[in-house]
Amino acid sequence: MLRINCRPCIWKRYFASKTATDHYATLELKKDATAKDIKAAFYKLSKKYHPDTNPINSVGTSEKFQKVVEAYEILGTEDKRKAYDYSRSPRYAAHLSVHTREQSGHHSTGTRKKQYTDIDIDYKDFEHFQKMNRRKRVFHEHWDMPNEFSSSFAGSKRDEKGFASSHHHYKDNLHTQREKEELRLYQELEEAKKKCKHPLPTFEQLIREEENIRKQNQKKSASIGVTLVVTLLAIAYAVTHMS
């Protein structure tokens, strides 16, 4: 629970933003839709209204595509969705009405009194939400979409010179953490190889070395056996002729 100062002027500016837009209706969803439902609807509608798939009516579809992207930018993020839902709730409207009346009374009496209330979300979310809704979005030929969408229409995203852009690939936090962990292990192995004067042999090398040692031991045993037999025969021959 966070105690904040709900300044009337900021509430007024915030409410002046485009909160009347029903982003749930844009994505053809109900208000209780899950995050999985929101993502699935975004995938479906973004491909449906993407200008690359509608070259004949690119103007009309681009407007719908823009609305779909705007809706997903808000509903696809937990904090932004929470702020959006709160701005459309009766509780928010009641707070706004109270602060509007208080502001009018303060101006008439020439005094100003701070009003505090308890709400269950961070006020920074509202300021960010307001700025995001007021921002003018200019759509151009390179749509600000994950690379996985671009690959469905015309391959990977490309820059002004026509080269495929690698930094547009979408990676979640888990994927990034795995890459960092793999890089760390690789660097540790490389450092260990540099410090080790006698590198550890591979499993196949160990097998071959053991086989060579076994063959050498067999040759030595055979050589000793032959030498022993020859020696015994020589002794027997000498004893026979002496008698």
Topology of this protein?
Blueprint: E1 2-5, H1 8-15, H2 23-26, H3 35-49, H4 58-75, H5 78-87, H6 90-109, E2 116-119, H7 123-134, H8 147-153, H9 173-195, H10 203-242
Antiparallel strand pairs: 1-2
Helix pairs in contact: 1-6, 3-4, 5-7
Give a brief outline of the structure.
The chain has helices spanning 8-15, 23-26, 35-49, 58-75, 78-87, 90-109, 123-134, 147-153, 173-195, 203-242; strands at 2-5, 116-119. The chain has 243 residues and is mainly α.
Keywords:
rod-shaped, mainly alpha, DnaJ_domain, 2 domains, single chain, two-stranded antiparallel ribbon, Helix Hairpins, transmembrane helix, 2 strands, about 240 residues, Apopto_cytoskel_mod
How does the helix and strand content classify structurally? mainly alpha
CATH topology of the largest domain: Helix Hairpins
Mean pLDDT reading: 70
* Uncertain regions spanning at least 5 consecutive residues: 1-16, 113-119, 136-144, 163-169
Rounded radius of gyration (Å): 39 Å
Q: In the CATH hierarchy, what is the architecture of the largest domain at level 2?
A: Orthogonal Bundle
Give the count of helical stretches. Answer: 10
Order of secondary-structure elements:
EHHHHHHEHHHH
What number of structural domains do the residues give? 2
